[in-house]
Amino acid sequence: MRLTMPLKIAGAVALGAGLTAYARYRWEIAQRIEEVETGGTVALTHAGAIEYAQAGEGDPLLMIHGAGGGYDQGLMVGRDFGQGFRIIAPSRFGYLGTALPDDASVSAQVEAHAALLDHLGIDKCVVTGVSAGAPSALEFALRYPERTAALILLVPRAYDPAQSIGPDRGADSQMILRLVHASADFLFWLATKVARSAVVRFLGVRPELEANAPIAERARITEMMRSILPLSRRVRGIEADSKTIIAPWPLEQLRVPTLIVSAEDDLYRTLPRARYTAERLPGCELKILASGGHLMLGQGAQVSKAIRDFLKRTGGATSA
Predict the structure, then answer these.
(1) Domain 42-164+250-314 adopts which CATH fold?
(2) Using the 8-state DSSP alphabet, how is residue 147 labeled?
(3) Phi and psi at residue 245, in whole multiples of 5°?
(4) Whole-structure pTM value
(5) What is residue 317's predicted lDDT score, i.e. its pLDDT?
(6) pLDDT band for position 245 (cuts 50, 70, 90)
(7) Alpha carbon of residue 47 to chain centroid
(8) Residue 59 carries which DSSP code?
(9) Which ranges in 39-86 belong to alpha helices (H)?
């Protein structure tokens, strides 16, 4: 009986904290929905309606986002490239304002990329694929070499017969993965607040690396977490990505200057696939980061320099 009052107080505190957290979530998710609904433009192309956004001036660069992304993630990654580029960032099939068609294959996505460039009057550009955006970037370069000034693949999802790819298999990462596939906006948001290390590991970065990173780098991780919301506007694309089967490409036929970047500690295990692809692409350059994980944490300056040096050597961009 003596515990009745303390238990009531504890229950009231817990309820109050829960209500406060949910109110905060409602405010933040409303902001995110407004941002994603107003930040992009829908192009009516011969391949269907495609959402995209642009930023910067200079050489055109098609930025193809990874899983859990959208045009907003593409713009975020594009910022790391610095000035001198006109970033064209589409939302891939099933993400944000781009619908998931009956045929959501990599080949169909390539044709959507080409249709968007046609709509914008762009004949040739640098093509960059990030993570799960790499398959359509690579296939675009194979199908349209005359339209590809250079190909850049960052921590790519690519073919490798000996390796699997995906989130860290630990319990924390798998818990976050279930939230993502369930489109559990509130629970994912809550995890970013109370289980940050689990979300960081799910994103392919060792939590201890992020915990010891400078404030600016930790802020970038926070921005990446926030960019995944609302999950409900991205889950169809995530599901489509999870079902995509990566088959071998005729890599020896590619005659486009190519740079591939991966990290030794990428928890998504992209490095074996990066090596496999680079070994079979004529003249491909492979940049291996000693650390940084799947988000290349703390390596932005090094990656930007590698890209600019590569584009200058190959003539892939005039203003790099």
Answers:
(1) Rossmann fold (3.40.50)
(2) G
(3) -100, 125
(4) 0.92
(5) 73
(6) confident
(7) 23
(8) E
(9) 71-79
